[in-house]
Amino acid sequence: MSTILLVEDNEMNREMLSRRLERKGYRVVIAVDGEKSLEVARADMPDLILMDMSLPVVDGWEATRRMKADDALKHIPVIALTAHAMANDREKALEAGCDEYDTKPIDLPRLLAKIENLLTVATQECIS
Ligand code: MN
């Protein structure tokens, strides 16, 4: 079973998405801001991180930069989630070190395809 760290400050979004991911068989751990996301990532070593970019304390951009600068965490794939489908958000997310990017409102089949793809790539890198 893969563990996903869901970083989301909005309680309604967080509960809805974590419930839907759990129903798909993922174990979900939660962080409510960017600073906490680093603590939870170190403690739980998730297989993948879903990172809302608009977060209190430390935003998703900065939290991702810190993860990708941390030798213990940088291998964990990060999918950036932004509410605004700005043309340069995708580029900005990839620059911050995110491995993938998607927009809200969540299209679950599309997001699941991205999650499964990144988990498969990560597994293949481990065994090769
Ligand atoms: Mn947010």
Verbal overview:
47% of the residues lie in helices and 19% in strands. It is an alpha/beta fold and 128 residues long. The protein has a single domain (3-127), classed as 3-Layer(aba) Sandwich (Rossmann fold), CATH 3.40.50.2300. α1 (11-23) links the parallel β1 (3-7) and β2. The model has no long low-confidence stretch (mean pLDDT 93). Bound molecules: manganese (II) ion. Manganese (II) ion (MN) is lined by residues 9-10, 52, 54-55.
Gap from first CA to last CA: 20 Å
- Poorly predicted spans: none
Q: Helix and strand string, N-terminal first?
A: EHEHEHEHEH
The second-level CATH architecture is: 3-Layer(aba) Sandwich
Question: How many β-strand stretches?
Answer: 5
Q: List the bound ligands.
A: manganese (II) ion
What is the number of helical segments per DSSP (H or I, 4+ residues)? 5
Write a concise synopsis of the structure shown:
With 128 residues, the chain is of the alpha/beta class. Helices cover 47% and strands 19% of the residues. The protein has one domain: 3-Layer(aba) Sandwich (Rossmann fold).
Short key terms for the protein model shown above:
128 residues; alpha/beta; Rossmann fold; 5 strands; binds manganese (II) ion
Which secondary structure elements does this structure contain, and how are they paired or packed?
Elements: E1 3-7, H1 11-23, E2 27-31, H2 34-44, E3 48-52, H3 60-68, E4 78-82, H4 89-95, E5 100-103, H5 108-127
Parallel strand pairs: 1-2, 1-3, 3-4, 4-5
Helix pairs in contact: 2-3
